[in-house]
## 1
Amino acid sequence: MKGVVFRGDRVAEVRDFPDEEPGPDHVLLRMRASGICGSDLHNYRAPASEIRFPDNRVGHEPCGEVVAVGPGVTRVRVGDRVMNHHYLGCGRCKYCRMGYQQLCSDPAFKRGYYGGSLHGGHGDYMVCHERTCVPLPDELTYEVGAMLACGSSTAYLALLKLAVSGRDVLAIFGQGPVGVAATMLGAAMGARVIAVDLSEARLKLARQAGAWKTVNPNDGDSVEQIRELTGGEGADATIEAVGLPITRKQSATAAKVFGRSALVGERGQAVYDATPDIIHRHLTIYGSWTVSMLGMEEAAQFVVDRHVPLHELISDRIAIGHAVDAYRRFDRQDTGKMVIVWQ
Ligand SMILES: [Zn+2]
Ligand SMILES: [Zn+2]
């Protein structure tokens, strides 16, 4: 079977791998869609010396069909359509029982994740533990399932933490795959969304996704632009989906007094002037890291019930043989969602 690995320094490679069979409690998925997530860029761009699992297939937004089950599997059957929650977890600790395997407290399992220390979704097949399978509703395509396997559900959880409603103006910094999904889902929850990005192509996609207004920092300070759009007050809620110190600071200061803000973009530092930026403005700041098993299921059901057209955010459907070029284009950070698909 074919699979994709990262060699470091912005080089992806398509390799041949031997076929695999599911062991006890594991299932074999025939991959049908595997999303390319913004967080993949951290590993893609890393120097070769920092690639920790150079022989493992990447891809942590897997969605496919169960084609074989190993001994002892009880929750999943052959023929099931599933999304993969890409953290293995021990299955026993408090956080695993909550469905947050990414928080697993057992060190033996903590670093087990598909697309990193374990083979991920960028391959024709994938073996995963049955407890990491989340049912994909019949109404949703595998492509949308791949989006919900990480990025779009991450957006959904941040919106839930912010308790976004039709009373809110919601400013979202960064319109990459997570940010633009937050735009679409936030609009579906009733919010008036201000989408912020440097890329005009991404702002255009954000408008199609339902953004009320768009802000390009090239046109002037984005916080000032957001204040102008909100009668000088700032946004009721903000989301930072970039992961840079400057946008983290802007995401805080663009929120109004008593506002709420969620941090989703990963890595690096944040520098605030605590008193004027946060304390004297009674700001509430949330951290939000991916989603739980049940949260993914709920996000998928929300998309079904509200007919949220997440598929419209997909700009590229790629055959696995073209993954190398796909990553090169995704690295430019001006595409919509890119998904590897199998017919
Ligand atoms: Zn991700
Ligand atoms: Zn655990």
## 2
Amino acid sequence: MESFAGKTALITGGASGIGFAAAQAFAAAGADVAIADIDQQGGEIAASSLPNTHFFRADLTSEAETVAMFEAAAAALDKIDILVNNAGIQYIAPIEEFPPDQWRRIIDMMVTAPFLLTRAALPGMYLRKWGRIINIGSAHSLIASAYKSAYVTAKHGLLGLTRVTALEAAPHGVTCNCVCPSYVRTPLVDKQIAAQAKAHNIPEDEVVEKIMTAESPIHRLLEPQEIADAILYLCSPSASGITGSAFTIDCGWSAH
Ligand SMILES: NC(=O)c1ccc[n+]([C@@H]2O[C@H](COP(=O)([O-])OP(=O)(O)OC[C@H]3O[C@@H](n4cnc5c(N)ncnc54)[C@H](O)[C@@H]3O)[C@@H](O)[C@H]2O)c1
């Protein structure tokens, strides 16, 4: 396993799912880790279960809380070498019924917060001539699904931010990539199974096979550890030539 001793990693949404798996992997590889999350209790439990890991509470829909969290994490860890923009939520509804406040919440958390954190992290990375920014996109950074207008828009936007960051940061030793998974077995997906069953009017046990993985040649959910492994790879020396990529781990979904 690659050692990340001496490196620091800030992971948003690190209290659960993919973010927690990434925090576990970085902590096991020797990095100092900051978990940022809106979930105070979950974040404290997650951080206390890992070595060299701190928790910072922030609602990433708030610019003030996002910026203050970054400053607190950078002060506690002394620097931020690796930024993983991971926090995300889903909301499922047809466009004509989609609540505008849910639209704004998703765009604020999943596009604006990554921009604010990238903006805050780059100067220190440029100074040290090394940095890795991993944006957790989705297969929905590349393709669309009905009833997910805000999520698909946010994930396409995050891939755009990734590409611009890669272009600007390359001369400074900083890479930026967008990891694009298909469905991963996390609480976010558990909630969607129930919502999709309602939207498509089918039983919940048919949702994974008939809706979620129907278009993929490999019909299974991914595990959070598989995404964490890809994140660490993209931060490793072997991946120093990879930047601006849509790094798909999607069971072949987007191969169509
Ligand atoms: N699970 C999947 O199938 C899947 C597939 C592709 C992409 N993704 C993406 O991976 C990322 C993580 O998803 P997950 O499945 O691990 O979800 P999850 O629900 O397990 O974890 C998301 C975390 O984000 C936190 N969060 C939610 N709102 C927040 C806010 N306003 N401020 C700060 N933190 C907040 C939650 O408390 C939670 O800890 C998301 O961006 C998601 O879109 C997930």
